[in-house]
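$ ./design --mode recover --in tokens.txt
reading tokens...
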């Protein structure tokens, strides 16, 4: 699923296509409009990825603190979350409160996706 689709919701493209289908125009015009809308969304996604890459490059060139503030903040917040989630009600025996499981799943997906997708884009741009 595209980043724009994730940001706006999983059914955005379906809703756009449904709106296009409800227009009173010929099938050819509807198809052309759908293609144009898809191009706009693809371009927006590409621009969003480019902005993230530019921000990371600017941070890397700015000095030690600007280059490391996000990783330091990420490490700090992760440590605090892990400490709180592990010690939440664990005075006698260890049990993970089920409420933390979806948070861990989401964090892992976001972190791995951002890191590996970002690194892949950087490597492709260098070539």
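writing sequence...
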């Amino acid at each position: 699923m595209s980043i724009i689709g994730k940001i706006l919701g999983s059914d955005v493209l379906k809703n756009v296509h449904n709106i296009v289908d409800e227009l009173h125009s010929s099938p050819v015009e509807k198809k052309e409009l759908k293609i144009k809308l898809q191009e706009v969304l693809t371009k927006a996604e590409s621009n969003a990825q480019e902005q993230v890459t530019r921000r990371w490059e600017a941070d890397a060139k700015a000095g030690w603190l600007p280059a490391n503030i996000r990783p330091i903040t990420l490490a700090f917040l992760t440590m605090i979350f892990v400490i709180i989630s592990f010690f939440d009600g664990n005075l006698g025996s260890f049990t993970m409160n089920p409420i933390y499981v979806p948070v861990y799943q989401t964090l892992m997906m976001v972190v791995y996706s951002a890191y590996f997708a970002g690194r892949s884009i950087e490597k492709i741009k260098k070539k």
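exit 0
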